[in-house]
Write a structure and sequence with these properties.
single chain; about 325 residues; mainly alpha; 13 helices; about 0% strand
Amino acid sequence: MIKYLFMKTLILLSRGLAGNASLFVIAVAVITFFIPELFVWVRGTTQTVILGIIMLTMGLTLTTDDFRILARRPFDILIGACAQFFIMPCVAYLLVNVFRLEPALALGILLVGCCPGGVSSNIMSYLCHGDVAFSVGMTCASTLLAPVMTPLLMELTAGQIIEIDAIGMFINILIVTIIPVGLGCFLNYIYSKSKHFPTIQSLMPGLSVICLACIVGGVISTVHDDLIARGLWLFLWTFAVVFCHNTLGYILGYTSGRLAGFNQAKKRTISIEVGMQNAGLATVLAGNFFAAQPLAVLPCAISCAWHSISGTILAGLFLRRDKH
């Protein structure tokens, strides 16, 4: 009985964290700003392992049917992948030049733009009555393409700012995304019929949110001194760029769906998929490859929190539109 109540509590806690992910991440960020020592341990290899756990939780929820979508709907996935890896890097490059960002912040924005779609986009698509199968397919496709596309796009957009270790980035993305997702899928395939496996799956969203909060906390502890030294202006200027990047991603993603002749559900999904990036991956890559530019992680950390908030807002706006 005690074991049952304990598991029930954990499941409810996981649902609560998943439903209030943005609030939890922001709370951790604010607390860390005042007590930076809390997450000073989230650096380097530890940060990479935490992101690997997030990607493992994604893999544990994927089934073979999710990957069959890639073969069943090639046109949809092709349009989605092209929009993902064209719109966001181009918008990031444009904003970096319009806002005349310093090199470190520019690297962060460009890295967010060149990363694949975020894991939580699937939840947002579900909430706004989007095409969830299409959302999962797009997330799978962009994640599988990321080891090649992200280093290539960074070389094209940021090569003039800093030397890009494309091979090292390829290997790193492979280790922190493809391998954990593949392992999660394998475990799902092997143990999916086990009576305890659904319980484990139900705990994954909460674990993912906790891990994301740890990554953001680690970033805040890293840039804490810079934020103190340069004040609120640095944060607001960076947030303005993140806001524009994310919002233009939603708008242009929706527009690409309209141009492709998608129905309403698919237009909503591609909008969310394009606008919401895997900022957690961008944060880890910034820490691993741009350590000499510590402020590069700041746009990534802000994106981690803001994408969850804006995705929830957008899903709500889509639902409100249905009622009118």
